[in-house]
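To assess whether the prediction recovers the assembly geometry, we first specified each molecular entity separately, as shown.
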Amino acid sequence: MFLIKCPWCGERDQSEFHAHGEAHIVRPENPDQLSEEEWGDYVFFRKNPKGLHYERWVHSHGCRRWFNAARNTITDHIYATYKPGEPKPEIDVNDPIHGNPENQR
Amino acid sequence: MNSVNTQANIELTSACYDRKPVTGEHTLQELPLSGKINIRGDSANAEIFSALEKAISITPPVIPNTKVSNDNVTVYWMGPDEWLLVCDIDQVSTISEKIRQHLGTLHHAVTDVSDYYTVLQLSGPQSEALINRGCPQDLHPSVFPAGSITQTRFGHASILLDRQADETTWHIQVRWTYAEYLWDYLVSAMDAL
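The predicted structure of the complete assembly is given in tokenized form:
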């Protein structure tokens, strides 16, 4: 069991939450002027990084609000959670405890 | 033509009508149908907030997972732009209409959800342990004293937990169709104590 901090409700068990993929994807303002490749990129293609990942989460069994989280996909450590609309927080991926294991060697 | 019993004439005011109240060391019963009004409106918008406050004659809670109540209503914090007002079932239309009048053209929504949720009352010395059979939240009185409320999970059901003043009685609000699931889960938890 690990705890995730909902920006409203505070720390709750992970089973109250669901993850919904990459965050900060902005819908293009002029979809009809995009090439098929550009539109395909927006609709289907997502980053799949090893390490720091900004993602969308929802507190489904709690306040049912969406928020964003900065998570390390290797260690599963969540560096920060923040409300939608707030800017990406600065994260030190070389953090000696929670950073990428390969950076620590 | 013989009429078919479609249950259409049964007044469905109970979600667990075929479950007998549990008595003994731990008790479990479904509370009579109450009025529930879901109110949506941005609590950070002063105009909306004060209009709502005037309409329901009580200051809606803005701290997450808290409630306020007076003799007539209890208002639960459900989200930064959402409250649940619980009142007498006969008062639903009067209160809803009053809120709509006060909020006028401001961006809001008022929905009668009285029959969307039902409330089970669980009581007994080990009620905290019973709830923790299906709920991951720390309910120790040092962090979750009498009067605390929270939206959380019990098994697969989303619940609104409301700890009553005596600490060992709980009101568990759950979606109507999950009520029997929650009931049976709690009964089997009692057997396993």
